[in-house]
Amino acid sequence: MSSSTSTLESLFQALRVVGSNLIFIIPSFLTVYFLYARYSSPLRRIPGPFLASGSIIPRLLVLKQGRAHSWDQDQHKKFGPIVRIGPAHVAVSKPEAISQIYGVKTKFYKSQFFLTFSTYDEEGLVPDPFVLREREMHTRMRRSGANAFALKSLPSYEKNVDKVIQRFIANADQKYVDRPCDFGRVAQNVIADSIFAAIFGNDQRLIETDDSNNVSLKIERYMNWATITGVIPWIHRYFLQNMFVFMCFIATDNMFQAGIDISLAALARIRSGNVAADVPEEGYDTMLRKLAFLQHDKPDLLKDREMMIHTYGGVIAGSDTSSTALRSIFYFLLKNPETYSKLCDEIRGSGFTVPVSFADASSLPYLGAVIREALRIHSPVGMMLPRSVPAGGVTIDGYYLPAGTEVGISPWVLHHDPNVFPNPERFYPDRWLTKDAEALVRMNRSFFAFGHGIHTCIGQHMSSMMLTKIIASMLLAFDLEFVNPNENWHFTSRFFTYQHGINVRFRHIKSKA
Ligand code: HEM
Q1: What PANTHER family does its record include (predicted)?
Q2: Does 248 belong to an annotated binding site?
Q3: What's the 466 CA to ligand 1 centre distance in angstroms?
């Protein structure tokens, strides 16, 4: 027998032994790997669920099941303010840590979780401020978008939102009045049309078509998928960056391209001076038009692709979050009839008419409190806003976290802390109208629905403009009631919290007995 044959035979024999013992080898390997991840890390002193400390699988399962909001709260109740929720993942619940992790001077940066929310064009990563880890580019984007998103710019976009509200009311008899309807869908359609109208002038006419292409469902599926894969970011290279795989598994058409096409068409109209369809009257504007004029005056400040991401990125970041807020607002108002009546009294006693202007709607204190309370009790973001610990590591609450650790705070955890919000499960808008200045400072410090610091939501004023106008106008024209008052909604919580099962009827106010 030649030596090469005997070497081959020994090799096959070794493989046979390995094969027949795989049942022992794989679990042993996984156990060693788990114990290594669990105990070799500098995070080993941090309390947390045993399995999660050595493996990312428990966190993945929680996100897959869509129960991030309650799982995070449970872990803090059990283990305290600092919890190890993954091999290199730490959740914090202390309001004092907000400015350290997120503040304007922070050195923490967006964690790899956000890779799965990134998009790419021929120049590479599209500089969406929401995903940018690179500080200089992020500052440039915030600066170039500042004026277009600013509070003072919003009145110039209002006319287009007014047109959406008027169309909603004109369609209501045929679609919603005196018949059951899915308020989740109504909210999505009216918000998405409003946001498109404010940004581009033209909108998708989802109110009329009832989103017949199910774009919102596709975005929901994409967001859910992106959250789950965000926990294992290396997978991004094989899935979302690969358009073929992305189209087959996630989207049935390219919804991002549709957003870009709408931006480009509106931009072409602006550049040709043909904006009659986008800008209803002299003195009014759209966000895209404002950005285009800025670019004209300061070409170095804003490239075309940056203008695109400010606009269609705003649609993506703003429509699901704002419609989630609108759903919560009406759900909690209807579940708590005394709050509903109090709000109706304020709005109907104001003397305002439909469509209510932003200036008028934002002068109503109880309406402001209702919106803030709904964002508190059901934050549209359902899990911690993850960040990476900077070079050199940090110490939080006495625990050392090495560079690269993923760390964050969940709005759900802060917003349901009974020490800050007494009786946190109660929908109680009046808590925001308290005369107790210290309590108000404490609550505001823990209010985290829009994040905090350098990445704080740039669209929060835009969201407030849409919500205040839409709610005030809806309640001037209609009453709402549950089809079945005993029915509860159901929702999933991953990065976003999507609610379903809010079945309501609209009634004309005068037709109510
Ligand atoms: C109730 C509605 C909204 C909620 C609850 C919300 C929530 C948030 C949160 C929590 C963040 C911070 C994410 C992080 O720190 O990792 C954020 C960022 C952002 N939001 Fe909103 N948002 C809302 C509406 C909007 C609207 C209407 C727009 C645009 C028109 C918008 C555009 C953005 C953008 C561009 C960012 C990234 C900012 C940056 O990283 O510099 N959002 N939002």
Answers
A1: CYTOCHROME P450, P450, PUTATIVE (EUROFUNG)-RELATED
A2: no
A3: 14
pLDDT score at 24:
77
Instruction: Pick out the chain residues at pLDDT < 70.
Output: 1-4, 237-258, 510-513
| Ligand 1 center–CA 410 separation, angstroms | 15
ipTM of the complex: 0.99
Query: Ligand 1: distance of its center to the CA of 455 in Å?
Result: 8
Mutate to test the pocket of ligand 1, among 308, 457, 463 (most ligand atoms within 8 A of CB): 457
What confidence score (pLDDT) does residue 14 get? 81
Helix H, strand E, coil C: the string for 191-212 is HHHHHHHHHHCCCCCHHHHCCC
Whether the link from the prior residue into 402 is cis, omega within 30° of 0, is: no
User: How many CB atoms are closer than 10 A to CB 403?
Assistant: 11
The string of pLDDT tens digits covering residues 262-278 is 788 888 888 888 777 77
- Give the Å distances, CA to CA, from 4 to 11, 16, 39, 142, 166: 10, 18, 44, 67, 85
Q: Which residues of 281-293 are buried (b: 16+ CB within 10 A; e: fewer)?
A: eeebbbbbbbbbe
Give the pLDDT score at 249. 55
Q: How far apart, in whole angstroms, are the C-alpha atoms of residue 422 and residue 272? A: 57
Give the amino acid at 148. Answer: A
Ligand 1, atom 31, lies closest to the CA of 459
Nearest residue by C-alpha to atom 41 in ligand 1: 455
- What DSSP string runs through 90-122? EEE--TTHHHHHHSTT---EE-GGGGGG--EET
134 contacts: CB under 8 Å, gap ≥ 6: none
pLDDT for the residue numbered 242: 58
- Residue 345 carries which side chain, given as an amino acid letter? D
